[in-house]
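Q: What would this chain look like folded?
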Amino acid sequence: MKDDRLMRLTMLLLVCVTAVLWQGLAQAETYIGGMLGVAVPLPGTVTGDENLNYPNPPGPGQLFRGASTRIGMAASVAYGGKLGHYFGAWPWLGLEAELLTATPHVMAGTIAIDTKSQTVGTFREAQSGVHLRMTTGAVSVLVRYPGLHWQPYAGVGPAVFWGHASGTGLSCDHRCQGPEVETSSVTLGWTSQLGLRYLVTPQVGVFGEWKYQSTTAHFDQVRSLSHLDVSYQTHLVVVGVSYHFH
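A: My prediction, written as structure tokens:
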């Protein structure tokens, strides 16, 4: 229910920003663009409730709340689009809405799970990978140098992250077969960017950007861990083409 309200609020915000930008089409400068690049996520910290009796319900002393581990995430292709507007009275100031999707799959390997228990401590087990898709909807405030051709710019703003994880239920060094992994997350975070645009003509531009995104995703269950909080921080480098309306 909370995730549904958050999604509706975010979509309403994006629609309102889009409407404002399109209303300004005849004034100052409005642009649309597409981008393609690569996402390079940092290793993620995972906290949750570890069930040592997985895939069965935990018995006495078999559920460890607040257990933690570290996971590796794979680099992936990133793609998306943007809609932005620079104001006539302040040509150096603008707003931009964007959607960007990446697939930073959780890599297979042996992970160390710290149960925070003096009796059990930390144990290691092999895990197969998890397919992860992360889509970001962001609204950023931009500042730029409004040059005739070269336009460096920077921006920062809030973002909503839609995450979806899927995979097999194998755990316990690939011996325990539990339910298939199928879980989603909707969380708030933030995004920042540094870019450089070159206007080939007054209407057509090409650009390159570095981005940094950050959130903490919440998933119901992934194998023996439930009620997970997963830190997600990623660097992105993208290039794209934009069309500008004056």
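The CA atoms of residues 215 and 232 lie 5 Å apart.
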